[in-house]
Amino acid sequence: MAKDDVAIRFNKVTFEYSHEKPILDEASFALRRGTKMTLMGQNGAGKSTILNLITGELKPEDGSIYVDSGLSIAYAKQVIPREQLELTVKEFFEKCFDEKIYNIDPKIDAVLDAVNLHAPKDKIIKAFSGGQQARLLMASALIQDAELLILDEPTNNLDKAGIAHLTAFLMNYHKTCIVISHDADFLNSFTDGVLYLDVFTRKVDQYLGDYYVVVAEIAARIEKEKMRNAQYEKEIIANKEKANFFANKGGKMRLVARRMRDKAAEMEEAKVDVRKEDKAIRGFFIPTQENLAGEILKISSLTVIKNHEPQVKQVSVSLKKDNHLLLAGPNGIGKSTLLESLAAGTAKGAKYAEGVRIGYYRQDFSTLNFEDTVYQSLAGAMQTTDEEKLRSVASGFLIDGKIINSKIGTLSEGQKGLVAFARLVLEQPGLLILDEPTNHINFRHLPIIAKALSEYEGAMVLVSHVADFVEQIRIDEILDLEK
Q: Labelling 362: which of 30, 112, 240, 418 has CA 20 to 30 A away?
């Protein structure tokens, strides 16, 4: 591969946050200019870490990282940093550049048009919905007109129209691009291949070709490795048995026995580290608050946003136990704002059953205290702390001894999502409010989460743009805010 052609090369790169948290072990891969690659790996494997190593935000412990000196990089992270939520739209885009950009307004107009978002430049970032913030993140990368575009979960919070718009853009994009996403159809429309970060071996495997073909190739390789190892295992046992037999004969037979043992040892060496399947969370059940009867939530009016202006709508929604409501509507219409006010008990036009306990899954995880350890966060969700129950629930969500003592703020977004679900199990709510609960979550976990939500016996209000996920959940009523 000609060096001129290489945009990025990792050569035996090792990186760890601590001895308890190794991420890469002598990982190597190279990326040509103009390629569009998907970065895969399970929650917490270190995908975002690789992106931060590319940008230079992090430095490797060992090995070398080559990034073409002429390669400017624009990185759209999963979420807008908290310290930028108070900025206006114009200030947010100005922060994308080190120096002052004169006449930036036409550039802002062009990138907002590219992501199909119409937004006043004096509007505060936190006033936008999750889907609109996702578009702003994308636009903040595009305005830099960089040679390498890095997108971390760009479809999170986007409605169907937003994903279609982003897909069309990337299909026509001719520069280098790295994308992390759990949306297979989205990836398959434009990706040239996959970089697979194996959480067990901490290596990066590189595959080229159609996304679905690559995923099948990875599965086939795992099967092949398992079969080869099984064959080695058989031969190792046979050689050890023969070695023991010849060793007992004495004399020259001991030499034969030694050769047999050496051969068995060679085969042990030849066995490959088979990539284990990503673990899925255990099936779980969200218990319902006891002694709840009759109407749990009644909504007679709500506010929607049309052309950035609030409008009050009259509705008639009555949720009793075991009633599941889906809130539908495009990005920016006010779904998240409505859920937030329902969760806080401040929604005008809403009445609650007395003493109802509300479990709220918020898409940006701002209900979690990032300074708490995971243990403190889970203990705080319980009515009375039960150590055994807490640890049992935690392990079901892949929260092991290492993670449970980590601060929430140090976790990956996917791990924060699993902590949020574990908290719901421990809270035992009577009313469950869920805002985009699939964001950042490994696709292997989604059927298990969908089953748990279907079986939830309290009142539930859900917002999700992921059609496949919603189809797996029992929904009793749909309220479309646009109609």
A: 112
- Six-digit token string for 415: 């791990």
Residue 350 lies in a domain: yes
pLDDT of amino acid 2: 42
Distance in angstroms (rounded) separating the CA atoms of residues 404 and 398: 10
CA 41/CA 245 separation, integer angstroms: 46
CA dihedral 360, 435, 312, 317 (to 10 degrees): -70
Residue 361, judged by CB atoms within 10 A of its CB (0-12, 13-18, 19+), counts as buried
454 falls within a domain: yes
Statement to judge: residues 176 and 263 lie in one domain: no
Angle at the Cα of 318 from the Cα atoms of 475 and 477, rounded to 5 degrees: 20
Domain membership flag for residue 282: no
d(CA 328, CA 317): 14
111: which residues sit within 8 A by CB, 6+ positions away?
93, 139, 140, 142, 143
Nearest CA-CA partner of 38 in 174, 159, 175, 151: 151
Residue 157 has pLDDT above 60, yes or no: yes
Q: What is the CATH number of the domain that holds 425?
A: 3.40.50.300
Euclidean distance between CA atoms 208 and 31, whole angstroms: 11
Pick the closest to residue 434 from 398, 406, 468, 462 (CA basis): 462
Task: Examine the domain organization and report whether 154 and 82 are in the same domain.
Answer: yes
**The pLDDT of residue 77 is above 60:** yes
Our count of domains for the chain comes to: 3
Is there a single domain that holds both residue 307 and residue 230?
no
The pLDDT-based confidence of 276 (bands split at 50, 70, 90) is low
The range of the structural domain enclosing residue 242 comes to: 226-270
- Evaluate whether residue 230 is within a structural domain: yes
Structure tokens at 103: 């006449």
Q: How far apart are CA 51 and CA 46, in angstroms?
A: 9
User: What predicted TM-score, i.e. pTM, was given to this entire model?
Assistant: 0.68
Same domain, 265 and 318: no
